[in-house]
Automatic annotation (TrEMBL):
Residues 64-366 form the Ppx/GppA phosphatase N-terminal domain. InterPro entries: ATPase_NBD, GppA/Ppx_hydrolase, Ppx_GppA_N. It comes from the Bacteria. This is Exopolyphosphatase/guanosine-5'-triphosphate, 3'-diphosphate pyrophosphatase. PANTHER family: EXOPOLYPHOSPHATASE (PTHR30005), RETROGRADE REGULATION PROTEIN 2 (PTHR30005:SF0). Residues 1-41 are annotated as: Disordered. Pfam families: Ppx-GppA. CDD domains: ASKHA_NBD_AaPPX-GppA_MtPPX2-like. GO terms for molecular function: pyrophosphatase activity.
């Protein structure tokens, strides 16, 4: 773990225009700039600043936040499609161009963390790095180029973090919930079962995990296998069947735990696929997280959007404001994964979460640090002890 100050802070975005920032909190809060934030942390006057980074098969995402009395406030964010796992399902290796794109995005993330004075963070890599022969080599390259220490998490950790990140969207009146996260290289599914007292607090939802699985199938790997630019109905059905077959063992385990009732069980999806489908359903002229996150869709709505996307040409998908060029060749593979899940569990309702791993990381870190215990005791949370644990040498690698 190294002192990142020698790398400099650079700019908040290499494009110089704020491109890629998907969320931002109010301008009040910690002092602006890396030096001001670090000084406040040293003096015990600034709140602890947390960061969560998720480097997936398709995307590189960062979230920077500070605790509030009931949750946390986002102070900076970044998202860029890097397609790190492009071709890895065929070659078994991360490609040079893909690694370059990822390193460039990670350098932006590093600059943002330094500029915001981050004192506690967890930086994870998922399926592409898990399966690539040169995954460890790539992490060493990242460390040398950016100073960031990434950890490759296992599939169970990925599934549980996804559940933590969207737990507040679970319907407390539901008997069971099937949470799914469709990624670029893998898809995680978790069965949650309520107890006699229901699901209770979002912070305790992980206690209700009854079954989980991770399929080595995601939008990138599926589109590379079946094609993503020109997708006819036969190709789409072949994709659905491929995923459905992989889901069968998990579906059998779920059946042992819960009697399916399409009214008492709901789906909870956290992924670009589900948020894209919701954006298209809402007819948004521009993707708007505030309208998508937490939305409910009916079964008929999902079917209608899937049919609509299947009828579109590739160019029409590119021109749709909720899809665009970066997702146009992946969205139907995502729809096929979603359709296979829906056919296994034809729930009447699905809730849409534009949140997931990063939020799960932040909640886990803050819970481990006792953030909300401090607030409940009326003392606020200034992060003095945490700052001392991290040390005074700038941004350093840490994990819960």
């Amino acid at each position: 773990m190294r002192d990142l100050r020698r790398y400099g802070t650079g700019t908040l975005d290499r494009n110089g225009s704020g491109a890629g920032v998907v969320a931002r909190g109010p301008t009040t809060g910690p002092p602006s700039g890396a030096r001001g934030s670090r000084r406040a942390a040293r003096d015990g006057q600034g709140a602890q600043i947390y960061a969560a980074l998720d480097l997936g098969t398709n995307n590189c995402r960062l979230l920077v936040a500070e605790p509030t009395r009931r949750a946390f406030r986002v102070v900076d964010a970044f998202s860029r499609i890097v397609r790190l796992g492009e071709g890895v399902s065929h070659s078994g290796r991360l490609a040079d161009d893909a690694m370059r794109r990822a390193v460039d995005a990670l350098a932006v993330c590093r600059d943002k963390m330094l500029a915001r004075g981050v004192t506690r963070h967890r930086l994870i890599a998922t399926e592409a790095c898990r399966i690539a022969e040169n995954g460890a080599e790539f992490l060493a390259r990242v460390r040398e180029a950016t100073g960031l220490e990434l950890e490759i998490v296992n599939r169970e950790t990925e599934a549980r973090l996804a559940v933590s990140g969207c737990a507040s969207l679970v319907d407390p009146a539901a008997r069971s919930v099937i949470v799914f996260d469709i990624g670029g290289g893998s898809t995680e599914l978790v069965l949650l079962q309520s107890g006699e007292g229901g699901f209770g607090s979002p912070f305790t939802v992980q206690r209700h995990v009854a079954e989980w699985t991770s399929l080595p199938i995601g939008v990138v790997t599926l589109s590379e296998r079946f094609g993503g630019v020109e997708v006819d109905r036969d190709t789409f059905e072949a994709m659905v069947e491929h995923v459905h077959t992989a889901l069968t063992p998990f579906a059998a385990r779920v059946a042992h735990h819960a009697r399916f009732d399409h009214e008492a069980v709901h789906l909870l999806g956290t992924s670009g696929t589900v948020t894209t489908i919701c954006g298209v359903h809402l007819g948004l002229d521009r993707y708007d997280r505030r309208r998508v996150d937490g939305s409910w869709m009916r079964r008929a709505d999902v079917i209608a959007v899937t049919e609509r996307l299947l009828a579109m040409s590739y160019r029409e998908r590119v021109s749709n404001p909720c899809i665009g060029a970066d997702r146009a060749d992946l969205v139907l593979a995502g729809c096929a994964i979603f359709e296979a899940i829906r056919r296994c569990w034809p729930c009447e309702r699905v809730r849409v979460a534009d949140r997931g791993l990063r939020e799960g990381i932040l909640i886990t870190l803050m819970t481990d640090d006792g953030v909300w215990r401090h607030f409940r005791r009326g003392r606020g949370y200034r992060g003095r002890n945490a700052a001392a644990r991290v040390g005074q040498g700038g941004l350093r690698g840490s994990r819960p």
